[in-house]
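Blinded run. Sample ID left blank on purpose so nobody reads anything into the name before looking at the predicted structure. Input follows.
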Amino acid sequence: GVRIMLNRPEASPDAADPGLNQILAAGARHSMPVNMLVWGRLEQAKQLAARNPDTNVVIDHLGLQQPFEPPAPAQPFAELPKVLELAAYPNVSIKISGACTLSHQPFPYNDIWDPLGRIFDAFGFDRCMWGTDWTRAVGLLTYKQGVEAFRVTGRLSDSDRAALMGGTLKRIYDWTPSKA
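Blinded prediction complete.
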């Protein structure tokens, strides 16, 4: 796959940057989703999605800056309104990865569900994919906690959970797990 890391200082801040747009156009030509790490660059992500409507753009990590170690940011969902604006673009989907690292509460992280509910409502479960981002999050939670929070919550129906926990990913990435 392809990943553009717009949050890096060396990344162009210009949505008209030819290199960025060539990558996105190539993604469309080859039916390959383009993942984008966009914290701090949500407006640019919106402009790139608008300029490249045939490209399947996947926003990484909720589009929000996430901690590498405790504590969670004081206002972890401060940029949520900008994230929700991306839902207006049908070519944009979002990874719900690292969500538990934004919690100020212990497992099962009850304080993340209202903001996540707004994301689910805006994008729909057909454009949302779960992920733990566990390799980055080892100082914040266990892999089991990152999975179980989504399995035990009463905020998801069985069909929503099935889409979020793999169904949407299989469709967007045209991926079939091996039977091995």
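Unblinding after everyone has recorded impressions. The chain has a mean pLDDT of 96.
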